[in-house]
Amino acid sequence: MPRIPRAALAALLAVTAVLAGGGGSSSTPSKLNATITVENGKPKGGVQNLKVKKGGSVHLVVTSDTADEIHIHGYDLHKDVAKGGTATFDFPAKIDGGFVIELENAKETLANLAVEP
Ligand SMILES: [Cu+2]
């Protein structure tokens, strides 16, 4: 393995740290377009971790084979969904933090929404 000058290594580590630290801006979309499918009262494919930048927007479509209510905590948005129906949410991501998207009556977490400052 070639010898890497200490200064070059330090510079490389600094760049890596910047990239890792700034990763939020490149990997977090300002527009979140998400779909959740509820099957047998549970999120198909498991609980999703959704991310969006604060100040961005969220478009969320939930399709459910169970009649229930979809609740987005923090934003306190509720929508009824009929059996075999769809609930659509469009809202600005103006509160940062972590929020549970829940199938309310079943008390089943469908997704975790992270709004990054
Ligand atoms: Cu709830």
Highlighted features:
four-stranded mixed β-sheet; 117 residues; five-stranded mixed β-sheet; 9 strands; single chain; binds copper (II) ion; 2 helices; 18% helix; alpha+beta; 50% strand; Immunoglobulin-like
Question: Could you provide a short overview of the structure?
Answer:
The protein is α+β, with helices and mostly antiparallel strands and 117 residues long. Helices cover 18% and strands 50% of the residues. It has a 5-stranded mixed β-sheet, with no helix packed on it. A 4-stranded mixed β-sheet has the order 2-1-4-7, with no helix packed on it.
Describe the structure.
By secondary structure, the chain is an alpha+beta fold. It has one domain (28-116): Cupredoxins -  blue copper proteins (Immunoglobulin-like). It is built from 2 helices and 9 strands. The protein has a 5-stranded mixed beta sheet, with no helix packed on it. Strands 2-1-4-7 form a 4-stranded mixed beta sheet, with no helix packed on it. Strand 1 (31-39) and strand 2 form a beta hairpin. Bound molecules: copper (II) ion. The site of copper (II) ion has 4 residues, from loops.
Indicate the proportion of strand residues: over 45%
Secondary-structure element pattern, one letter each: HHEEEEEEEEE
Poorly predicted tracts of residues: 15-25
Query: Helix content range of the residues, please?
Result: 10-25%
Helical/strand content category? alpha+beta
Look at the structure and give the mean pLDDT. Answer: 88
Count of spatially separate domains: 1
For the CA atoms, what is the radius of gyration?
Answer: 19 Å
Number of strands: 9
Tell me the distance between the termini. 41 Å
As an assembly, this protein is: single chain
Number of continuous helical runs: 2
By CATH, the topology is Immunoglobulin-like
> How is the biggest beta sheet arranged?
5 strands, mixed
Shape assignment: elongated
CATH class: Mainly Beta
CATH superfamily membership: Cupredoxins -  blue copper proteins
The largest beta-sheet arranges its strands as 3-9-8-5-6
